[in-house]
Amino acid sequence: EAGVAQSPRYKIIEKRQSVAFWCNPISGHATLYWYQQILGQGPKLLIQFQNNGVVDDSQLPKDRFSAERLKGVDSTLKIQPAKLEDSAVYLCASSYGPDRGTDTQYFGPGTRLTVL
Amino acid sequence: AQRVTQPEKLLSVFKGAPVELKCNYSYSGSPELFWYVQYSRQRLQLLLRHISRESIKGFTADLNKGETSFHLKKPFAQEEDSAMYYCALSRSNYQLIWGAGTKLIIKP
């Protein structure tokens, strides 16, 4: 099966600019996750979708971050405006979800964001 | 508090030597634990999960509820084992709590 796709792979922006990331999960995967991974740390969950509904966005800085998953497939994550501390790798992952009784997450290659 | 701790940021061993990557957790319920691995220039992927009780690429991990540990072990390290290893704990809503990771370097 095709893996999780993400784009772009790299992005360099200046602070206060906007940026958007795109994720296409594995076909049939109901659950989609966005993570932020700062250098030297493990992934931190930003938002979890089940189909096109939000399960948990408690760690999403909603004053600047937004995410959507229209039609329950692709998802976009936006940062507006970006801050220096947003420099990180943004990972998208998907899984079949609880309906299939499995929670193995499959990851995309990530987007490396540098905010100058 | 729910937490996963990997005390070693870096572990360096010689090829053929035994490897043990440590993972400790704090969780009030019945934990489900995983090891994920990221090889150089590859994406993060599942290595093994405790519920499967299987050996993958020679690695095993046993859940020790008394010591709240889930250490990853391999009796004889190979150069291709060099990678970042992350321990993760699954909450009831299938969310993962991650450790900070251990970089394993296998010296020839």
Question: How does this model look, in words?
Answer:
The complex is a heterodimer of chains A (116) and B (108). With 116 residues, chain A is mainly beta. Chain A has one domain (5-115): Immunoglobulin-like. Chain A is built from no helices and eleven strands. Chain A has strands at 5-7, 10-13, 19-24, 31-37, 44-50, 53-56, 65-68, 75-79, 88-95, 106-107, 111-115. In chain A, strands 2, 4, 5, 6, 9, 10 and 11 form a seven-stranded mixed β-sheet that branches. With 108 residues, chain B is mainly beta. Chain B has a single domain (3-107), classed as Immunoglobulin-like (Sandwich). Chain B has strands spanning 3-5, 10-14, 19-21, 24-26, 32-38, 45-49, 60-61, 72-74, 83-90, 96-98, 102-107. In chain B, strands 2, 5, 6, 9, 10 and 11 form a six-stranded mixed β-sheet that branches. Chain B is globular and about 40 Å long. The model of chain B has no long low-confidence stretch (mean pLDDT 92). Chain A binds chain B through residues 3-4, 31, 33, 40-45, 48, 55-56, 91, 93, 95, 97-98, 103-110, and chain B through 4, 9, 32, 43-46, 49, 86, 88, 90, 93-96, 98-101.
Summarize, please.
Chain A is mainly beta and 116 residues long.
Features:
heterodimer, A: 116 residues, mainly beta, Immunoglobulin-like, 7-stranded mixed β-sheet, 4-stranded antiparallel β-sheet, 47% strand, globular, B: 108 residues, 6-stranded mixed β-sheet, 3-stranded antiparallel β-sheet, 11 strands, 0% helix
Could you say what the CATH architecture of chain B is?
Answer: Sandwich
Total number of helical segments of chain B? 0
CATH class of chain B reads: Mainly Beta
> Termini of chain B, distance in Å?
40 Å
Number of domains of chain B: 1
Chain oligomer state = heterodimer
| Percentage beta strand of chain A | over 45%
CATH topology (level 3) name of chain A:
Immunoglobulin-like
Order of helices and strands of chain A: EEEEEEEEEEE
Uncertain stretches of chain A: none
The portion of residues assigned to helices of chain B is under 10%
| Fraction of residues in β-strands of chain B | 35-45%
The percentage helix of chain A is: under 10%
| Rg of Cα set of chain B | 13 Å
Provide the number of structural domains of chain A.
1
Biggest sheet of chain B, in brief? Answer: 6 strands, mixed
Q: Sum up the overall morphology of chain B in one term.
A: globular
Count of β-strands of chain A: 11
